[in-house]
Specification:
mainly alpha
């Protein structure tokens, strides 16, 4: 029996397992560096795709996303309180994850610096 042809629906292909992943693991870029398209993908992962056009038109990129409040979300067309609450909750999670990643990057950088300094002392002998 021949294998079933795979669906080439872009939605199914790219986003079928977004829910299985951590909120933004499909990108290695810090949230504040996200393009407006990456913010759109994030909304899609939250099943909030109906808001993508307004977010894109308003050029909501990562740094803007991290600082959105209820008033700004309303201006972006997120009129349902439940949707605003969900987006705000997910932004809070993004911030927490982002801060954690930044701390880890900084820790790695310091560790490498220490190793480099120790290495340069050894080579001067």
């Amino acid at each position: 029996q021949p294998p079933q042809p795979r669906s080439f629906s872009p939605d199914q292909e790219r986003f079928s397992n977004v829910a299985d992943r951590k909120s933004h693991n499909w990108t290695n870029t810090p949230v504040e560096m996200w393009s407006k398209e990456q913010v759109g993908n994030w909304l899609l992962g939250l099943s909030m795709e109906m808001y993508i056009p307004r977010f894109l038109d308003s050029s909501v990129h990562g740094e803007v996303l991290l600082n959105l409040d209820s008033t700004q979300l309303k201006q972006l067309g997120v009129l349902h309180k439940n949707d605003r609450d969900k987006i705000k909750e997910k932004i809070k999670e993004l911030k927490k994850q982002n801060d954690k990643e930044k701390r880890e990057i900084e820790k790695d950088r310091k560790k490498k610096e220490k190793v480099a300094k120790a290495g340069s002392k050894v080579s001067k002998r």
